Amino acid sequence: MATGSRRGTWKRTILLLWLTLARSYALDFLSDLPVSNDLAQSLQNIDFSTVTKPLALQYDIFRGRSALRDLPQVDRQLLRLPDLSKTAVAILLLLRGLGDAAHEVLLGVTLENLVEAEYAASRPGTDWAKQHPLSAEDDMLHYILHRCEGCEIGEGNHTGFENAAYWAAGGPKQHSLQPKHAVSSAMFQYAKQHAPHCIRSGVLARLVTRTYAKVIAGGGSHKRTVSVANNSWDPFRFLDLCRNRPEGCLPAMAREIDMLQEIEVRLLLRYELLRKLQEQLGGNIVTDRSLLDGIQST
User: Which ranges constitute the DSSP H helices of the chain?
Assistant: First the structure.
């Protein structure tokens, strides 16, 4: 009986989250979550502009110590919320400035498998990646997270931008054609309406399929080719725009770049929450329209 009641509470909580995000992006609903007042308060004031700022990752797990070991108790609560996907948890950690913890959660690290994860990360040749496959949504957040690293040298001795392109192309999945996804479709629609300067800079592949030939592969031992279909959001062109953003660019252009970075992570979080709601309540909740509802006026 208690279990059923708890599930009902979680269904209502996720529904509240969906409705709250549809109206605005204030996470006021979190006061109803089974978390401490400190965490609820901080999440109510979460700053999505975090993804527009430089991020330095330490990658200590590759030297045998997980960032989750040093995670403050208040943030550990996020790892114990059973009806949030690991992608949603990683997004919230990233937005709280906990980039290394977010990165590890994406890779499948939990509070329960820390020792195994530290062993696997610090020794090449384990089958951790095979045992913890990544979803398309994990790849998207990987792309966002490494894009925040920018020109900093990070994982695999590559820059954040290089690693971002790797994940935009599906990481180990090695897509030859950028796959369609509701979040990418929503980005295409949003940019068309709200980012004219970025459109003129080519963030939308509108007429022809574009091909990029310098995406790292094989751990960086070689480069491979990936294409973006016409009438699609182009994450590679947007990555170039972020990388080559000139110091003296037009203020309107700078605002659009920052806006699109924020919108992308908002859409991805919204997708994860709607998907979980759909799993629990049924129906066809995750659509391009449901992702964009409430965003058009931001």
Answer: 2-23, 37-44, 73-76, 86-95, 99-106, 114-121, 128-131, 136-149, 160-168, 182-194, 196-200, 235-243, 251-281, 288-292
d(CA 67, CA 1): 37
Among the listed residues 114, 175, 112, 116, the one whose alpha carbon sits nearest the alpha carbon of residue 143:
175
Stated length of the chain: 298
Residue 223 forms beta bridges with which residues?
A: 216
pLDDT digits (tens, 9 = 90+) for 42-98: 777 788 999 999 999 999 999 999 999 999 988 998 898 877 889 999 999 999 999
Residue type, 192: K
The tokens of 246 are what?
A: 């000139």
**CA neighbor of 219 nearest in space, from 172, 173, 178, 175:** 172
pLDDT band with cut points at 50, 70 and 90 for residue 150: very high
